[in-house]
Please model this.
Amino acid sequence: MDKKEKGQTQFDFHAFGLKGKAVLFCLFSIVLMFFDHRTDYLRLPKYYLEEIIHPLSLIAESPAKALNTFRDWYTEKEKLLQRIETLEEKELYLAYETQQMAALTAENRRLRLLLQSSSKLEHTTIIAELINISSDPYRHIVLLNQGANQGVKENFPVLNNLGIVGQTVSVSPSSSKVILLTDPHHSLPIEINRNGIRGIANGNGKLNEIEITNIAFDDDVKVGDLLVTSGLDERFPQGYPVAIVKSITLDSSGYFAKIIATPTAKLDRIREVLILTNGDNQDVD
Model:
């Protein structure tokens, strides 16, 4: 048999067309399914084939899994960022409410102390709130939210639960100005609570101290003595706390004492005050 005849007897797969190849693969698949369903001949090949294909399937699925993992991470991150932002807003709001509550609590405490002080006074009082402070650094004057419409007049004594604050100097229908006892233009007759020695308390322009004059250096004055109103000016009732003696030195005359005292009313912290409504209408000292 020559070479041409021998080549024609061999199976030529490439001679089949596309449809022929499809039909051939279908027949081959049917045969494999028949043997797989009816016999156990393909069990072992299937076992090893699955072992080979499994890593390939993992590799094929890894991009999709990585994409899903990244999508889930990004989505979770966005949710966490939104939750953090929401919690920060809630924290800010709660902090604001807490500050408001603290301010209201402090205000209620001060008002209770004022009302307790008012109940112990023998005079009619008006509760007022500080609403402004003078911008002049050399004057200690504050503005209150009570005025002539509420019965306030000039030269009414002003105090809080700790002691004397000052006195009214001008009044409008709905507000009034108060000169503090530390103002350089303010003077107040006082006496030492321990022994009754009298003097004059003068403002020196410093909010946390006043100067006491007209007391001899050899008089019985001690650091820590309580100074109270003497009532001799017929404006401030007698016996109200004014200041605590801080230091005692000899003045330039060599006879009188130079006494520095700290106001008991803590003038740098006042918010609410009491106005005594039965003061006399006199000029400020």
Summary: Residues 43-120 form the longest helix (78 residues).
